[in-house]
Each structure stands twice: as C-alpha cells, then as structure tokens.
C-alpha cells in the first residue's frame, strides 16, 4: 500500500524534505525484491545477478528496450499444495534496470538460484576518440594535449 504525502506537504512549510524522505523509504521498501548485485568485471563488462529462488527459466522474461532492461517473473502454481510454512516467496516479480548508452545484453543464464545477466559496453567506432592530423605535422608526431601543454 502506497501513501500519497502530497496533501501534507502543501500545508507543512519547511517539512517538504521530510515527506520526500518518507516517500523514498516507502519506494525503497517496495523495490527491494528480488535482491540483486551489479558487478563490474572490467572497464567494459558488467554482470547483474538477481536472486530468483523457486523460479524456473520458463517463468522468467528478460526484455531489453532502448536503455531499459526489464526482468519479469511470473510464478505459476501448477498444483495445489498445503504448506505448513511458506518462506520462499511465490509472488510475481518485476524489476527494471536503466542501462548506460551503448551497453548491450550479451547473454543470461540461471546458476544456483541466480539469474546472471552479462552486459558489455560497445562504443561505436564513430564515437571513439580519434587523432586528427594538423597541417604540417604527421599524426604519429602529435602528442596528447594534456601531456604536451601541462
């Protein structure tokens, strides 16, 4: 259940930051499931690990659209069971990750209850820095501006 703090914020001068903090805490609590890690493997490779205990690969959909990676898990109970204790969540999940420009999903796999998503930044050749030859100076003789004029 989400509370709308806006009406209180309008009448409470000087307390607007408090309502922002309350809203942030509430949103963070809602967005904490499922837990995940993001690891930088090197300068251009990253990995997202999402804990999806109890999910099978056919219950999970991974979609990349523009710069957003969306993970959706739909739990399907195929048979009725009588649980004496249910500690493993059976709820549906949805989590979105905003990807930086030129970061592409290279693959995904399940490993020990974790969904592992491999990402790689691939900057197009046209966007990479390139050396410009100056009239009268061969490009191989040009030093970097930072080291020449420091």
UniProtKB/TrEMBL annotation:
The UniProt entry, under Pfam families, shows: HSP20
Please, which domain of life does this record's source organism belong to? Bacteria
Sorted UniProt keywords: Stress response
Alphabetical list of PROSITE patterns matching this protein: SHSP
Say if the entry is tagged with keyword Glycoprotein. no
Q: Which Gene3D superfamilies match?
A: 2.60.40.790
Q: InterPro entries from the entry?
A: A-crystallin/Hsp20_dom, ACD_IbpA/B, HSP20-like_chaperone
- According to the entry, every stretch annotated as the SHSP domain falls at 27-137
| Tagged with keyword Glycoprotein | no
Task: Report the SUPFAM superfamilies cross-referenced here.
Answer: HSP20-like chaperones
- Which family is this protein grouped under? Belongs to the small heat shock protein (HSP20) family.
Q: What is this protein called?
A: Hsp20 family protein
Q: Which species?
A: Bradyrhizobium xenonodulans
- Give the taxonomic lineage as stored in the record: Bacteria, Pseudomonadati, Pseudomonadota, Alphaproteobacteria, Hyphomicrobiales
């Amino acid at each position: 259940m989400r509370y709308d703090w806006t009406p209180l914020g309008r009448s409470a001068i000087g307390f607007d930051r408090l309502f922002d903090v309350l809203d942030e805490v509430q949103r963070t609590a809602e967005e904490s499931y499922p837990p995940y890690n993001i690891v930088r493997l090197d300068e251009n490779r990253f990995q997202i690990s999402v804990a999806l205990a109890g999910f099978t690969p056919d219950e999970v959909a991974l979609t990349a659209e523009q710069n957003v990676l969306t993970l959706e898990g739909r739990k399907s109970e195929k048979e009725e069971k009588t649980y004496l204790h249910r500690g493993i969540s059976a709820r549906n999940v949805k989590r979105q990750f905003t990807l930086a420009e030129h970061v592409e999903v290279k693959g995904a796999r399940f490993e020990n209850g974790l969904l592992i998503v491999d990402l790689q930044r691939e900057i197009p050749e046209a966007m990479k820095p390139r050396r410009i030859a100056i009239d009268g100076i061969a490009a191989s003789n040009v030093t970097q501006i930072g080291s020449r004029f420091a």
